Amino acid sequence: MAEALQNVNVLPSSNSKKRPNPNDSNRDDFVAKKPPTSNKPNWEDPVSALANARHEFGEHGGVNMSIEASATFTVMEPETLSRMFAGELGPDRDFFIYSRHFNPTVLNLGRQMAALEGTEAAYCTSSGMSAISSVILQLVSSGDHIVASQTLYGGTHALLTHFLPRSSNITTTFVDIRDLEKTKEAIVEGRTKVLYFESMSNPTLTVANIPELSRIAHEKGVTVVVDNTFAPMVVSPARMGADVVVHSISKYISGGADIIAGAVCGPASLVNSLMDLHQGAFMLLGPTMNAKVAFELSERIPHLGLRIKEHCHRALVYAQRMKKMGLKVIYPGLEDHPDHHLLKSIANKDYGYGGMLCLDMGTEARANKLMNLLQNHTQFGLMAVSLGYYETLMSCSGSSTSSELNEEEQALAGISPGLVRMSIGYSGTLEQRWAQFEKALSRLQDSGLFSKN
Questions:
Q1: Cα–Cα distance between 119 and 244 in angstroms, integer?
Q2: pTM of this structure
């Protein structure tokens, strides 16, 4: 099927025939023409790239695309089906087999994700973890090796530490990716297949030097996979050398805390291999995205840039004010953050420094007391995992989203017992929410559990 899938990242023409003639050699009916040179996307700006991507119209001329809710697809001639399974006809010609393979609505969402990340192609899945696990299993075989950041989302860390060694004989060496020399030394030539890290780490907000890490990996023939869940729009890993970008779309890209979804963005050859009928992880493991979910998400991506800017603006203002109050705040937008200048040098202009910040309260008891006050007494935010919601979400990372790491692993990752991870929302006014934070902190100080001194 590889030949038929070579153009999975190419948008069919809006007036393409719904039931094309399989023998029609005029591909102009099916393949979008390249835009004039003057209209090429500005690859420095994700919003510009999205605006330059083709808009998919509905079947009857609707401004929104139609939802292709079918699990399976009919053909007009019996011979067509065999040709599709033989790889002679595929989505680039508007031929579809089954929605576990390619679905037109999900394919369009993938094109939006590819534009957002500046990659050749992308395809979306039922969750972030399904995207991560599928791409790793596609790139790494039994007996192979991965080098990964020691600071990762707990689920990813558990996948690499426990599941893959047991199920697939795939091992991982964890390193401090800030130490480029140690990262280079951890790569075993001929055996290491993937260098895996997060553009902005969960939860400690370490910023990856994507250009240098990509250079080191590529010198050794290693594929670079970057989780960009914390920093869509803010950072564009593929434009700095990363080979593959993965997302939990459930977070910022969804924005509503109501959808679970993921994405893999990268070369068309990778998406093709993931969809291969015989050896593709997406095809055979079945992490299929529902077409109705894909439609909803496609309607949210156009205003992602506006949402990200407000998330980031508020996070910076709160972090600056928290620091002035004497709190131990971790935020890469602050000049005293060790990665501030790095992020400033690699970030896309005008989108800020991320919508996540951390408060280190020292102990879990203080962290829990503060979160209780912030939710139940002043309504500043909600105690919940995940991120990217319009309300502020708070969790004590060590006992929640990073609980898969043991005490030693948490210490190596820089996760203190009292680290409160905050996904800063944008509901209410900035000053209204700040007053709620100050009120909760004042109550905490009055309780004797915490002092700025």
A1: 8
A2: 0.88
